[in-house]
Amino acid sequence: MAADPHRHHMTVKEYLELDHSSPDAKYEYIDGIVYNVRDPQSLAGGTLAHARIALNLAILCDRLLASSPCQVFTSDVRVQLSTSRYVYPDLTISCEPADWQEDTIYNPRVIMEVLSPSTEAYDRGKKFAYYQQLANLQEYVLISTQQQAIEVFTREGNAWHYQLYQAEESALLHSLAIEIALVDVYAHVPIEPL
To answer: How far apart are CA 133 and CA 135, in angstroms?
Structure first.
């Protein structure tokens, strides 16, 4: 089945078949529309800073959570937001062993997105609105590629509380009881602190 590289309408079943049969592509599915996330015209990040920050985050979180019941997953793992929405966050942390059986996470505790100019508005807007509907999601983390800054949105009941961390600080993830030092997140990334 050929898909338009930018958008294509299909059923969830067709989407999952396409996604499973396309090892060199990665597709997100939002309400019947498929987006190729590796297409620069679609939703991709794709810069060296984006790639390095995502790698640093994965390594740091994996190390910090080594003795916990949680697992860290990179952007190769799909997250089901609802029966009609599937996405590939830059980093997903799940503490539900039932999630670790196949290729889709259903109960993420933390989702992290590394911002890029082409995706920032979507990550802050519609995508965050979609993520807020996940009952088990406790924190949403946005990491800048333009400056040394991490924004953490923490769920408290029905409200989301915001905290900005910059330069020499450490971002606190309450739901995991860990701190992520920005100096480590931005290691080998030529972004000056504010």
So the answer is: 6
